[in-house]
Amino acid sequence: MSKRKPYIRELPRDWWMKQLFYTKYMIREGSSVLITLYSLILAWGVFRLSQGETAFNGWLEALQNPFAIILHLLMLILALYHTITWFSLAPKAVDLWIKGKKLDDKVIVAAHYGAFAVLTIFCLLIITL
Amino acid sequence: MSKTTEKTYKRSHEPVFWGLFGAGGMLTAFLTPVMILITGLLIPLGIIDQHYFSYEKIHGFATTWYGSVIVLVLVALPFWHTLHRIFHALHDIGINRGRDWQQVICYGFAFAVSVFVFTLLLQMLTAPSLFGF
Amino acid sequence: MSELTIEIDVLRYRPEMDNEPFTQTFEVPYTAEMSILEALQYIKDHLDSTVSFRWSCRMAICGSCGLMVNSVPKLGCKAFLRDYYPQKISLEPLANFPIERDLVVVMDDFIKKLEEIKPYIIPEKEKCLSEGTYQQTPEQMAKFKQFSMCINCGLCYAACPQYALDNKFTGPAALALLARYNRDSRDNGEAERMKIVNQEEGVWGCTFVGYCSVVCPKDVDPAAAIQLLKVESSKDYLIGMFKPD
Amino acid sequence: MQIIKTDVAIVGAGGSGLRAAIEIAENHPDLDIALISKVYPMRSHTVAAEGGAAGVAQDHDSLDNHFNDTVSGGDWLCEQDVVQYFVENAAKQLTQLEHWGCPWSRKEDGSINVRAFGGMKIERTWFAADKSGFHILHTLFQTSLQHPKITRFDEHFCLDLIVENDKIQGILILDIAEGEAKLIQAKSVIMATGGAGRVYSYNTNGGIVTGDGMSLAYRHGVPLRDMEFIQYHPTGLPGSGILMTEGCRGEGGILLNKDGYRYLQDYGLGPEVPVGQTKNKYMELGPRDKLSQCFWQEQQKGNVIKGPRGDVVHLDLRHLGEEKINERLPFIRELAKAYVGVDPVHEPIPVRPTVHYTMGGIETDAKTATKLAGLYAIGECASVGLHGANRLGSNSLTELAVFGQLAGQQAADYARNSKHEKITPLRKQAETIMARTEALLHSEGTEKMADIRQEMGDCMEEGVGIYRTKESMQQTINKLAELKKRYKNIQITDKSSVFNTEFLYAIELGYLLDTAQAMAHSAILREESRGSHQRIDGFEKRDDNNFLKHSLAFYQGDKAPKIDYSSVTITKSQPAERAYGAAGEKAHAQEKV
């Protein structure tokens, strides 16, 4: 008869609350809930667009609701959080070698932020054309 | 060497979803913040005048072939990213029952919304005048 | 002997006596250069000789002494009292592994995972010793070197919630080792190993929490290895669609 | 009691044990191999070797050079036929490791790079940055995984050898997790258990390096050879003893005393080589025994630096620059930062000599066979006759590969030509051993294990250290006798079965004490100075007339070991003066005339 009796510790359900790193991970994953919501709002906008001008304007008006503003602000924050985490992890999936050296992670991250800035400004400009 | 127990390996179909997740994640990272900024804050608050986002302008854009593609990608692709994460997060928080159904619902939802938006755009593209009357 | 002391909580579990772990507190003399491992040795030598833990090299290369220090996976020999003093330190066996006894965990599953990923050179054809060594430029070596630095301490498994949630997942160290061989110019076994990678419990068990790479005491980046393998697995999937074997 | 039948049992799964196992698995697929280790294989102390492995790799080098460096490095106490076999097979076995995936550092064109090491005429140390042992061990461990005939018994502790009819028949092992014994019945057994550096307080060795195999063979009548030769590595970290590889000096690092003076030039290793350059066999590239002795001399003169963890000198790498340090010595940088808070890029590293290696060990013939039929020994636990009175840096990693391979062959051949014998007497023996072991576990003694261990380590440093006198050695001998007596009354609080490390430490302490005794008794009778055995009580010179011979320590139970001698095989290199620096060059020139 073996005297061994390995003790298995159960993972608590709220494991992700017990360690800051995990909490941040969960926020990252959780950001997708609000981003889903935002995408639904956009999809709804396309639907209203297809229904004609009145419908579309109704959609635009609804977005002016203070509740909508606050919601969008929140969504913006989480979307930015997603952006930051996405960029910081991006180098790990990149396997670019230049002259026998792996491209520095910092360069890859910086390139992402650069492109992000350019795209953001581009979008802001193009919308006001 | 003995060839007794060569394991059988079962390929996962995850690459399909992971590919869409990655594409959606990339798009979300680069463009969603500015999109939220424009549609959710700057325009509703009037910082950008609403005429830049008028029905004519948007409808005109969405009824060009390239415009409709752009709108489809911008609106539908993020779902494949976010629903993928939601599906996996359900597992993370210990909701383990019916993983198959969870999968069907999550990706099915992304698929349904994609088809929905696609249909709307196609409708607008092929019959633009219909709504004019 | 130093006047200063520090309190250390050690999670105890003696399978022949206890039904579940409990905490025992020790007071250990404090010096700045003392490692957690040395503190444990002090406890074993002078306070309670029944505390069991693994250790050997004392220089962060043998990988024996992994444990949770204040809930963070660390090597006992490379964590120092000075980084916690004067706060109390809590020591627990590596998370996500069954506790064998005290700070000793059951490593069987981890070892099995290492064994399963075919971590050896599978050459295209057997090379004769008389032919001398392979040519491998520093550049070719750099492609895999980082992933060959793993000391098998298991810290990354203790840091991986996906392994905790489902221990069928191959896990960080084993996948990093797999990447090490796939990326070696001398190796030709990628096709065999990709079968392992492509499985649900291969790379697809990972949701990129990324903590494995943070806790690695040897700066191996298993999270990166897994990401790169996901890319490879996706390519493999595409090829497989057009060219089913 | 579980009984496991196998063909070859290998005790120890470090570099040499794994190499032997792979050899058998590859070439004798019909044989079953049991690979027993008290730790997981990758924890074995091979992992901590840093500098590299010697094997002739350059056109302007030659096997003769390697031979001569080894033999003179060993102060002519080497078995020269063994050295010849070794140098002939060195590069081949290192190439084999390369084929298995060992990431040796390379030149730009992709060929193997070599670095300089102490006591070497031409650079021939193959290295994998400064983690050579780590990479060798992991390569071997991983390579071994493809062989289903190798059955590993990880975390199984060897309790004793089973000897019946004057030959080895198996071993008795303890499953550490279960706390249960298993009898491994084997046709041949290979001991590959590593050294015994832990008999000293300050050492570069891991906690597991406790001379288990040496003691087990010794207790069964196999002599331990040349045990008085203990290598002090000149550059260990103060306090912990953690190793700063000789590669530091091979890459151009220098040693400085408290005045910032390169003191080695005062001890026959000069003239001074300009900083930033290296000259083989000069200054910092002198052999380990000499360099450790120089430290002691400087200490006597009061030229060392007083530190919080004892006297030190400085190992200065700053002139190498950050890039080179990161490329060639990254681990050294990591270790220095972590354990003494010094970044070698900006500050010199405090170092002192620490016990590193046991040159002696279980006596074997040139083909790794011991006197006990069926028992082979390899690696640091063995004395195959390669190292003589002082091991040349980077020969030991190569030794693992060369003699691991050979022992695999030999033990396999032996196993093929013999049969398993009747189990009954073996089981009976096993039961006796178990009874004895149980008795130790349940002894109600009062002596504290930690005290005995500490006193043993200190008395060995004191008496059988870098410099020795009859008086100091006698004190050590007396102390060891006392400790052995006290050991019988040892206190073991933990009576449990599962992973009872206190119990294991107690058994290990028994192994250590026996090994220590063999060392001290061999030392006191060697009335000369040779290699790492240096006396300052009237025997300062080497005495080839009386002591060009190996010492053999025979176990005598509770009594002092019996010391005997055997001759040294000399083939082509007659004993000559062992000189380095300019003196060495001069001596060499004279020899040629």
Structure description:
The complex is a heterotetramer of chains A (129), B (133), C (245) and D (593). Chain A has 4 helices and 2 strands, in the order H-H-H-E-E-H. With 129 residues, chain A is mainly alpha-helical. In chain A, strand 1 (97-98) and strand 2 form a beta hairpin. The model of chain A has no long low-confidence stretch (mean pLDDT 95). Helices cover 70% and strands 0% of the residues of chain B. The radius of gyration of chain B is 21 Å and the shape is elongated. Chain B contains 4 helices and no strands. Chain B has one domain (15-126): 3 helical TM bundles of succinate and fumarate reductases (Up-down Bundle). Chain C is elongated, with a radius of gyration of 21 Å. Chain C has a 5-stranded mixed β-sheet. A two-stranded antiparallel sheet of chain C has the order 6-7. Chain C contains 9 helices and 7 strands; from the N terminus they run E-E-H-E-E-E-E-E-H-H-H-H-H-H-H-H. The mean pLDDT of chain C is 96. The longest helix of chain C is centred in the last third of the chain and has 21 residues, at 222-242. Chain C has 245 residues and is of the alpha+beta class. Chain C has 2 domains: 5-105, Roll (Ubiquitin-like (UB roll)), CATH 3.10.20; 108-242, Fumarate Reductase Iron-sulfur Protein, Chain B, domain 2, CATH 1.10.1060. Classes of the chains: A mainly alpha (129), B mainly alpha (133), C alpha+beta (245), D alpha/beta (593). At the C-D interface, helix 1, helix 2 and helix 3 of C face helix 3, helix 4 and helix 9 of D.
Notable traits:
heterotetramer; A: 129 residues; mainly alpha; 3 helical TM bundles of succinate and fumarate reductases; 2 domains; two-stranded antiparallel ribbon; 4 helices; 2 strands; D: 593 residues; alpha/beta; 5-stranded parallel β-sheet; 5-stranded mixed β-sheet; 16 helices
